[in-house]
Each structure stands twice: as structure tokens, then as C-alpha cells.
Specification:
It catalyses: glyoxylate + L-alanine = glycine + pyruvate. With about 475 residues, the protein is α/β, with parallel strands linked by helices. It has helices at about 1-10, 15-20, 25-40, 65-75, 110, 120-135, 145-155, 170-185, 200-205, 240-255, 280-290, 340-345, 360-375, 380-400, 430-440, 465-480, and strands at about 90, 95-100, 105, 165, 190-195, 220-225, 260-265, 265, 275, 295, 320-325, 335-340, 405-410, 415-420, 425, 445, 445-450, 455-460. Strand 13 and strand 14 form a beta hairpin. Residues about 1-30 have low confidence and may be disordered. The structure holds pyridoxal-5'-phosphate.
């Protein structure tokens, strides 16, 4: 190892370029830095699991060049992770590669999106095949791609949920779902949860309930119930007590009749908050009594991510009236969907409802391939097995590091909340940035969220292995010990 490190240092630029074409450049390069650090401090630095793959040589613009252009030509509202933003140029299953060929373990999955793994060959092939056959025609003509995928998606749904509308994003899916609920019930009032994120267009920004994601524009017709947050909520894990607030909102905040209730089974942007157990069944009853529809937003928790079930809402045993989805549906292809019953879907025949790209053959071909990969590769089972193992290891880390206030979630949608005082639950907002930066230096990328920005969001591709889980936890452990 030592010998290798020395000879690697001697490589000239030209040789270095040649070397980059060799297998596992990034892995060996990291071993070198690990060995050096280990020598200095005597602390063992975690090492990326082996992965027999080398990305092609990158000869595009550098991170600095891209950043300069981005600053000049793109919206100033766009932000990046890390002090020195990463230029990610290649992806392969659960790994990402930067411009120098350095490999990173992807613990965020493009924000809970790349469920099958980066550039999964089957999904790529489906996209190529459809693109070279017919890229776009609109739904004004027949094409089998949209119909085949709709039928396959409907087969994954419980009850009478079998009519699919395709959209281009999660926001658009939730906008449509809320409009359908309003049309069907003839009511305007929708109940959402505090700390929710449902999108950023006119209606969905109303349903989103975190001030840092809401602009000061008209957002009416949404009431926000107390969040059934087991860690920070006043009733802890008692879902039934939180459910009473929905009943109260209906009685005291509306005419007694509502259009619906929208929820994420596990709040993603809000910091991986799983709704307290036994919350949804009583809420479902209150909403039904008030004539409303129940909308499950499965944008983050759907497509096998929770491991125990294909959809997040199934973990609390209810069947919603409308289910919305995006992100994982296309493994990174822009695609969303709303699924509901034939009776409810009928309201859209009152006028024309159409969008140019929804149900595009390339996107639906990708979506269909995703379903097949999840099934064939047992990704739900893997999310359950590896996710449970990862959660166990993260929970054990809590005994070692006082900064960990809570470990939560299920399957491969996990959260680690950092606090500077466990009793007061003071958000560790600056410390999380430092740890995240150190983890990145070790080769692990994780997400961050929660209203106070103090929660690690771990939502990797569902092909994550136990070795990957060990590496992620070891890197977090190491980074926390260096605080
Ligand atoms: C639960 C949930 N719903 C809806 C959305 C909006 O999806 P999109 O960004 O595709 O519009 C998001 C995005 O993060 C989300 O997490």
C-alpha cells in the first residue's frame, strides 16, 4: 500500500491521464489519501468498498468554469452543497464520479430519485430504444408506451386505484390531485400538515408548510394541522392524539365539509419525519365524514423505498383516494403521475385536461423499465434488509455521539437529526455542515434537510449494499469524532 502511494505520487500529468483510464482509479486514489492520514493521526480512515468499474475519461469544463457560467446565466436562487461544489460527471449504480474520476458513494440518490441505481442498463436501454423509435407525439395519437406503463402502474396499486394521469413533476402531480379533490367534492378547503413539502406552484405552495419554501404570494384554501412528529411533536408517538387536531380543524376552521387531506407518509424535505403510528386511520375517518378525499403524496416514499411496502401509505394500513408520485418513478427521467379511481377521475371530463409532455413515450418507457427492475432485482426486499441494517448501525452511533438526537425512517429513507443539546433539542445547524463536508472528503454524499437544516437525509439508490451502509456509517462516525 505504502509502495503504491509513493509510486502514485511520482506519476506525471500525462501518465496520470493514462492511469485514469485504468480500472478503479478513484478507489486506489482514495486508498492513497487514507493511508497518509492514517499514518499521521493513527486513526483508521474508512475506505470505499471495492467497485469494479472505471468511468470514461472526462474532458469537459472544470467545476470553476461551470460555476462561473452558472453564476452569470442561471437563477441566483440555485444553490449547491459543499464549500467547493462538486462537478459530478458520471454515475454508475450507487456511485457517482467527479471530473477527476474520484468515486463517491451516493447516499442521497438525486434526492430519493435514482431508485434503480445511476444509469441502470435496462432503464438506459429502454430510453435509447424509445428515443430512436419515437420520441414525442402527444396523447392525440395512440402509442403503446403510455398504455403499457399505465397498466403496469395500476397493477401496483391497491383497491380501485387504476386510472393514471401522467405529469412532468411532483409539483404538477400534486396541483392536479388537489384540483381533482376540489372538483369532486365541490369544496375548497384542503388540510395539509405543518412541515410538509408538496411543491412550489400556486396550489402546492399553499399545501407546503415551511416558511423557507413559501413565497409571499396568494396561497388560499389550505389549513395546516399539527405535525404528528414523534421526535419534536407534543404527543410523541401517540398518533391518535395528533389526529384529533384534524377533526378540530374541520369543525372550527371550515364549514364542516372539506375537499381533502394531503400527506407524505414520511416527510422528506421536512427531515425524514415518519408520521406517528396510528395517525392515518382516524384522520382518514374524519376526512371521509367531512366528505373529503385523502391524497397520499408518494413522491419520496413510493417505489419500494420504505422496504416494508411498495407505497409509504401502506405502512399505516389505509387506502387513499388519490396517490401522487414523481422522483423514483422514472429513475431520474422527468415524470410524475396521479392515480385515482375511475369515478373520481371522471371529474376531468367536465373540461379539457391536457399537457404536452405528460405521458411522453420516452418517459413512460423509462418508467415501465423501472418497475421491471425493482421487481426483478428485489429492490424492495433489499431496501428493507439493507435499510434495517443501516438504521441499526446509525442508532448504535447515537450511543457514541451526543450530537445525534434522533435516528428515524424506514427502509432506505432514513434521517439522522443533529442537536447540540439532547434535552433542549437545539438544532446543530453549523456542525451538520462541517460533518457533511468531512464525509464528502471521505467519499460519502448525503442529503440535508428539516426545517432547521439539521437533519441528514439518507435516501440512496435501492441497490445499496451492507458494505456501502458500513462505509457510510464509518465515515459519519469518523467525521463526528473529528468535530
Ligand atoms: C413529497 C414531495 N412532493 C412533491 C415534491 C415536488 O416534486 P418536484 O420537485 O418534482 O416538483 C417534492 C420534491 O421534493 C416532494 O419531496
Amino acid at each position: 500500500m505504502q509502495k503504491f502511494a509513493t509510486s502514485l505520487n511520482r506519476l506525471t500529468t500525462a501518465k496520470d491521464q493514462l492511469f485514469r483510464r485504468c480500472r478503479c482509479y478513484s478507489q486506489l486514489a482514495q486508498r492513497q489519501s487514507s493511508a497518509e492520514e492514517s499514518g499521521e493521526s493513527g486513526v483508521r480512515v474508512p475506505i470505499l468498498p471495492a467497485f469494479d468499474y472505471s468511468p470514461p475519461l472526462y474532458d469537459g469544463p472544470t467545476a470553476e468554469e461551470i460555476l462561473k457560467k452558472r453564476k452569470e446565466f442561471l437563477s441566483p436562487s440555485m444553490f449547491c452543497f459543499y464549500k467547493k461544489p462538486l462537478n459530478i460527471v458520471h454515475g454508475k449504480m450507487q456511485y457517482l464520479f467527479d471530473e477527476n474520476g474520484r468515486r463517491f458513494l451516493d447516499g442521497f440518490g438525486g434526492i430519493a430519485t435514482v431508485n434503480c441505481g445511476h444509469c441502470h442498463p435496462d432503464v438506459v436501454q429502454a430510453i435509447i430504444k424509445q428515443t430512436t423509435t419515437l420520441q414525442h407525439s402527444t396523447i392525440l395519437y395512440l402509442n403503446h408506451s403510455i398504455a403499457d406503463f399505465a397498466a403496469a402502474l395500476a397493477a401496483k396499486m391497491p383497491g380501485d386505484l387504476k386510472v393514471v394521469f401522467f405529469t412532468n413533476s411532483g409539483t404538477e402531480a400534486n396541483e392536479l390531485a388537489m384540483m381533482i379533490a376540489r372538483l369532486y367534492t365541490g369544496c375548497q378547503d384542503i388540510i395539509s400538515l405543518r412541515n410538509a413539502y408538496h411543491g412550489n406552484a400556486a396550489g402546492t405552495m399553499g399545501a407546503t408548510a415551511q416558511s423557507n419554501w413559501k413565497f409571499n404570494v396568494v396561497q388560499n384554501g389550505v389549513h395546516h394541522a399539527i405535525n404528528p412528529d414523534p421526535y419534536r411533536g407534543v404527543f410523541g408517538y401517540d398518533g391518535e392524539k395528533y389526529a384529533k387536531d384534524v377533526e378540530d380543524l374541520i369543525q372550527f376552521g371550515t364549514s364542516g365539509q372539506v375537499a381533502g387531506f394531503i400527506f407524505e407518509a414520511i416527510q422528506g424535505v421536512g427531515g425524514i419525519v415518519e408520521l406517528a403510528p396510528n395517525y392515518l386511520p382516524p384522520v382518514y375517518n374524519s376526512i371521509k365524514k367531512a366528505g373529503g378525499l385523502v391524497i397520499a403524496d408518494e413522491v419520496q416514499s413510493g417505489f419500494a423505498r420504505t422496504g416494508t411496502n411498495f407505497w409509504g401509505f401502506q405502512n399505516q394500513g389505509i387506502v387513499p383516494d388519490i396517490v401522487t408520485m414523481a422522483k423514483g418513478i422514472g429513475n431520474g427521467i422527468p415524470l410524475g403521475a396521479v392515480v385515482t379511481t375511475p369515478e373520481i377521475a371522471n371529474v376531468l371530463t367536465r373540461r379539457n385536461y391536457f399537457n404536452t409532455f405528460g405521458g411522453n413515450p420516452v418517459c413512460t418507457a423509462a418508467g415501465h423499465a423501472v418497475l421491471k427492475v425493482i421487481e426483478r432485482e428485489n429492490l424492495q426486499e433489499n431496501a428493507h434488509v439493507v435499510g434495517s441494517y443501516l438504521k441499526e448501525r446509525l442508532t448504535a452511533l447515537k450511543d457514541k455521539h451526543e450530537i445525534i438526537g434522533d435516528v428515524r425512517g424506514r427502509g432506505l429513507i432514513l434521517g439522522v437529526e443533529l442537536v447540540t443539546d439532547r434535552k433542549l433539542k437545539t438544532p446543530a445547524k453549523t456542525e451538520i455542515l462541517e460533518i457533511m463536508e468531512k464525509m464528502k472528503d471521505l467519499g460519502v454524499l448525503v442529503g440535508k434537510g428539516g426545517f432547521q437544516g439539521n437533519v441528514f437525509r439518507i435516501t440512496p439508490p435501492l441497490c445499496f449494499t451492507k458494505e456501502d451502509a458500513d462505509f457510510l456509517v464509518d465515515a459519519m462516525d469518523y467525521s463526528m469524532s473529528k468535530l
